[in-house]
Amino acid sequence: MNEIEKIKDALKSSNAEKIVAFVRKESEPREVLKVLSPNEVDKISFSPLSLNNPAKLLMQINGKVAVVAKGCDSMAIRQLIKEGKLKRENLFIVGISCKGVVDYRKLAKFVNLSEVNDVELNGNDLVLKLKNGEKRIPFLEVVDENCLYCGHPTPVIYDVLIGEPREGKRDFSDIEQFERLSREERWNYWISQFERCIRCHACRSVCPLCYCEECMVDPSNLAVSPMSTPEEKASYPRILGKTVNARDNTIYHLLRVLHHAGRCVGCGECERACPMELPLRMLERKLEKVVVEIFGYDLNEDIPFFSKLDIVGD
Ligand code: SF4
Ligand code: SF4
Ligand code: SF4
């Protein structure tokens, strides 16, 4: 039985009312997430181009739901359970021991994507089934960089595991070179990145941990408009301006990353979604290191990070 058949087999035994899984796109050689009914299991596909994280979608579904989850997807699911946003008893998780996913932008530099019918990982190569033959690319040339320092390739929570467990990476070597730069060099680097941000908020929209109905950086119900009364204007919070400039963008990014302290699960969705290709994961990784080294917090702990901060006092 191949990997996809094993996934379908596991899902058929789930008794779930809905299934969240990957389905191949018609126009591109990659999968997208869909909510399916149990009789649509045969539509399911899975490959190194099953990029996205299903956790956010799960929050929109009531009742028992089955989900296909890579390691980082399972991390997000577990985090949302910890934060009271999902109920474990409502989930049937088919975990995939993950060898990494492809960076679609890197792949597009090697091949015309419209020529690709199928992809599979074979040893150290990504094998592309093209309309006219086959092409092999070393996987390391196209792998999503985020996967190179993945701490949890094996799902941390599942009902059925597909594939053999894999060891994750346990260090922060990916950011140590950057940390050796001077304070001024690091500041200049980040300002040069933040000023490229167009504040489309795609990074926020895709993040499984950004679920607040009223986001402090972009309030809707509490936004000041020409119709607002003076009392409303005085009482509504104004955290940062809407102007796209380095100053406001920097505040946006600092607020965003601080809200992920001890929570970011390393799925890479934010960076994948960013049209300006900002290195958002590097910022999250730095914070992750601070949380581990200064607060001694491990994301695998059962309690949320904020409950360790002791901010309430006696
Ligand atoms: S971050 Fe880890 S679990 Fe997620 S896709 Fe990459 S290798 Fe797989
Ligand atoms: S997705 Fe990129 S451009 Fe859009 S707000 Fe986030 S960092 Fe800025
Ligand atoms: S901040 Fe980025 S990497 Fe972290 S959980 Fe959100 S989308 Fe995933």
What does this structure look like?
- This protein is α/β, with parallel strands linked by helices and 314 residues long.
- The chain is 33% helix and 15% strand.
- Strand 5 and strand 6 form a beta hairpin.
- Helix 8 packs across helix 11.
- It starts with a helix and ends in a 19-residue tail after the last helix.
- The site of one iron/sulfur cluster (SF4) has 13 residues, from helix 9.
- The site of one iron/sulfur cluster (SF4) has 14 residues, from helix 3 and helix 6.
Instruction: Label the overall shape.
Output: globular
Q: How does the major sheet shape up?
A: 5 strands, mixed
Please estimate the helix content: 25-40%
Q: Can you count the helices?
A: 13
Q: Tell me what portion of residues adopts beta-strand conformation.
A: 5-15%
Instruction: Give the distinct bound molecules.
Output: iron/sulfur cluster
* Backbone structural class: alpha/beta
Termini separation (Å)? 58 Å
DSSP summary, beta strand count: 8
Q: List the secondary-structure elements in sequence, H or E.
A: HEEHEHEHEEEHHEHHHHHHH
- Arrangement of strands in the largest sheet: 2-1-3-4-8
CA radius of gyration is 21 Å
Low-confidence stretches: none
Overall pLDDT: 91
Number of domains: 3
